[in-house]
Amino acid sequence: MVQDTNYLSHWCNLALQGKLKTESRHRKKYFPKKIRELKAMLLKADCICEQGKGSHTKCSHPLLDYKITISGKDGNDAKRYQEKDVKDFLKDIQEAQK
Questions:
Q1: pLDDT at 98
Q2: How many beta carbons lie within 10 A of that of residue 49, not counting itself?
């Protein structure tokens, strides 16, 4: 029993001295945006969004010659590729405005 407390106190001392890494090795928790947030970002950038088939929404911008399609209902979590597509689309809009 005495050994266990010595062992525990040794690790506690290491942690207090900063020699023991106490943070998790895993990635930080990722919270995806909602589909409604992506649409709001596009509308804020003056995109024209029109309803497609089912739960698809097609968004375009007057300065760009292509459209972006977002699938999913407004309350669904967006996939990482959807967030990346919207981010790239917004970046293209900024570059076209220059």
A1: 84
A2: 16
Q: Nearest Cα to 92, choosing from 55, 51, 47?
A: 47
Query: Do 49 and 39 contact (CB within 8 A), yes or no?
Result: yes
pLDDT per 10-residue tile (average), the chain, 98 residues: 61 64 62 93 93 94 94 93 94 92
Structure tokens at 74: 């407004």
CA distance 92 to 17: 48
Q: What ranges in the chain are assigned the alpha helix state H?
A: 2-17, 35-44, 80-97
Structure tokens belonging to residue 38? 């992506």
CB 74 within 8 A of CB 36: yes
Query: What predicted TM-score, i.e. pTM, was given to this entire model?
Result: 0.69
